[in-house]
Amino acid sequence: MRFSLKRWAFCALASAFSAATLAAAPYPDKPIRLIVPWPAGGSADTIGRSLGDALGKRLNTTVVVENVAGASGTIATSQFTRAAPDGYTLLLASSSANVSAPHLFAKVHFDPIKDFTPIGEVALVPSVLIVSVDSPYQRPAEIVAAARKQPGKLSYGSGGTGNSGHLSGELFRALNQIDVMHIPYKGNNPALTDLMGGRLDFMFDNGAIGHIQGKRVRALAVASDSRLKALPNVPTFAELGMPDMQLTTWFGLAAPAGTPADIVGKISAALNASMSDTAYADRLVAMGAELRKSTPAAFTAFWADELERYRRIIQSAGIKVN
Description:
By secondary structure, this protein is an alpha/beta fold. The protein is 43% helix and 19% strand. The chain contains 11 helices and 11 strands. The protein has helices at residues 2-24, 43-59, 74-80, 95-104, 140-149, 164-176, 188-196, 209-213, 261-274, 278-286, 296-317; strands at 32-36, 63-67, 89-94, 116-126, 128-132, 155-158, 181-184, 202-205, 217-222, 248-256, 290-291.
């Protein structure tokens, strides 16, 4: 009995010491998972992997990118909300999955506000109005004029109902009070093919920088508040007299709800420090993104504002995804 009591006491002491050691372990002391709710190879994946590399350097750990695609990013996002709030599972949040999808789908399995701890903005990727190189349209106003002369005849394509290209097209239609036909495709590439072949009159895309620079399509305007570094000669809609024509796909970093403030602060500092990483910044700028620096509080406010703004756009256009 005496031996058993001594053994129990030793085990209890060892267990307490182990728990204290773990509690005192500096964050992070193991690899971090970064969930990217989109397939490998796309713009979100490029941003996620670039971000993972940059964060890993500053947090002195490995950031493992995990692609989980499906349902406009909502499958991965829903799974993410069930992760432990310990800073070891992060999400590449986006306007598509986090503020657009909750209004597009009849039901998503997460609360767009309560289930997340916003850490900071990462990048904005503005929509760009493009036409074929043989198109007669040189300015957005010319598309508007043509659409008013022939209501319902002009068509624009997108990578699918509810994606950024579709929402941009609907915002353009509503602001200019024109009647144009939306043709959804299963991805942006088939839509681009038909645009270049003259089967579409215009489209909005945020991943066509290479096609624009290669002169395979012509860019007419950028839906952001400033010109893109990758497209310095393409004006913004505001410069052309359409200041409300702004729609960008944004990406940010989030942790599960309940993540401790000190961990959030450490990740936020690493995220903002990454902006000075030339390789990271150049990679994002080359793909048409604008880097963003913010705080958890600023990103939280931005997230809430965007949720309401997208609600207005989607409800006004009557867009629903089954």
